[in-house]
């Protein structure tokens, strides 16, 4: 079957998460993504274990599970950019690429002749994406960018975590590196748009992506709410600032989520709880009233919910058409019938592990389905193949490069 980015070559000089997440999406679309790594060391995340991938005998391999998360569908070569010949090879590869992705410090690749201005002078159709913590300019541009720091600076932690007046109150980071991941998603979108522009004009361009920019943008309604009102939102834990009840409740044997999105659903929820009088109580009958009186309503709901188990509440609430759901751990997630039906786990052959289980792409296309039959590559696994196919180096030439430590 055709794939959206068949024939597109991506040279990936990024590492860790934001850049690799972006290029993994391009690989999902069918691009040939070549990951350029340091000899012997490779991407930092190759060493971020445990957990490690197991071989068929159950022993740890040298592949960290973290690395597997963002590198499916790619090829890996090693190249020493500290050596002039390594730099020259990198420039040759860039001349054959459609897309160049990097997350080096601002200006760092210029010393290797791998900056956008140098490469675009000879290859004006190149789409070049730089990913940094704070962008290519501005007072923070020289700072290293880490997801945790950006979640703090960019406001996410100010609205994440339990309220300060509650037990355990205080700022919290999100459980995954969401600034990195969202930057990867935005970057892949930007690259696709730039490729579409090139298709129409023949012109490439430089894309300047910053974790902080993305973090601010993804605050969405919270950000626009502040811009409209001038009032900074605060943390509400597992509750919602503007909708009640819309939060986690504790049953007799665990927790679950209820999201009452309108007054009709609240009336049904009252029937489930056995409190029909709340439907007409002026404190609770409308959402604005419920928000105003949340400190009265929520404890009353909590007292009733605590008397019966999660399964009882989920069955009863769903029967009345009110949105609700369990809070699953990852074992329960991957056993969930809907997740299984949607085929969100891939089993892909792997040279060391025999087979690895990966999370599948969530994108479902009718005409150009995502096909992932290539596991995240071992370090330098495709060096010979890529140097031969992209820039014509024969076996003897690659052996010489390997002997001199350039690859």
UniProtKB/TrEMBL annotation:
UniProt entry tagged with the keyword Protease: no
Keywords per UniProt: Transferase
Gene3D superfamilies for the chain: Crotonobetainyl-coa:carnitine coa-transferase, domain 1, formyl-coa transferase, domain 3
EC annotation from Swiss-Prot or TrEMBL: 2.8.3.19
Molecular function terms, GO-annotated: CoA-transferase activity
SUPFAM superfamilies xref list: CoA-transferase family III (CaiB/BaiF) (SSF89796)
Enzyme class, UniProt record, top EC level: transferase
The name this protein goes by in its record: Acetyl-CoA:oxalate CoA-transferase
Organism in which the protein naturally occurs: Usitatibacter palustris
């Amino acid at each position: 079957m055709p794939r959206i980015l068949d024939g597109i070559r991506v040279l990936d000089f990024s590492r860790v998460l934001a850049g690799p997440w972006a290029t993994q999406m391009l690989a999902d679309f069918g691009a040939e993504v070549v990951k350029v790594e340091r000899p012997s060391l490779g991407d930092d995340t190759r060493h971020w274990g445990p957990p490690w991938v197991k071989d068929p005998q159950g022993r740890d391999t040298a592949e960290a599970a973290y690395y597997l998360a963002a590198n499916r569908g790619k090829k890996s070569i090693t190249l020493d950019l500290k050596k002039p010949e390594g730099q020259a090879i990198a420039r040759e590869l860039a001349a054959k690429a459609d897309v160049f992705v990097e997350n080096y410090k601002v200006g760092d690749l210029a010393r290797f002749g791998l900056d956008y201005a140098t490469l675009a002078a000879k290859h004006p159709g190149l789409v070049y994406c730089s990913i940094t913590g704070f962008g290519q300019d501005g007072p923070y541009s020289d700072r290293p960018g880490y997801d945790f720091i950006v979640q703090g600076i960019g406001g996410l932690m100010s609205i994440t975590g339990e309220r300060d007046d509650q037990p355990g109150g205080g700022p919290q980071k999100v459980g995954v590196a969401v600034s990195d991941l969202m930057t990867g998603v935005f970057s892949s979108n930007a690259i696709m748009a730039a490729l579409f522009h090139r298709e129409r004009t023949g012109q490439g361009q430089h894309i300047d992506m910053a974790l902080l920019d993305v973090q601010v943008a993804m605050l969405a309604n919270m950000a626009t709410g502040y811009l409209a009102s001038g009032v900074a939102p605060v943390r509400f834990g597992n509750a919602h600032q503007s909708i009640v009840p819309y939060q986690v409740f504790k049953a007799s044997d665990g927790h679950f989520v209820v999201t009452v999105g309108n007054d009709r659903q609240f009336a049904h929820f009252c029937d489930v709880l056995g409190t029909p009088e709340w439907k007409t109580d002026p404190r609770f009958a409308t959402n604005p009233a419920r928000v105003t009186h949340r400190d009265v309503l929520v404890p009353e709901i909590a007292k009733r919910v605590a008397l019966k188990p999660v399964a009882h509440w989920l069955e009863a609430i769903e029967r009345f058409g009110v949105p609700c759901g369990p809070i699953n751990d990852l074992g329960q997630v991957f056993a969930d019938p809907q997740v299984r039906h949607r085929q969100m786990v891939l089993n892909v052959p792997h040279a060391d592990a025999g087979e690895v289980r990966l999370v599948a792409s969530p994108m479902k296309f009718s005409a150009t389905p995502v096909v992932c039959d290539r596991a995240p590559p071992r370090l330098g696994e495709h060096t010979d193949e890529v140097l031969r196919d992209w820039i014509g180096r024969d076996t003897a030439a690659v052996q010489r490069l390997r002997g001199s430590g350039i690859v």
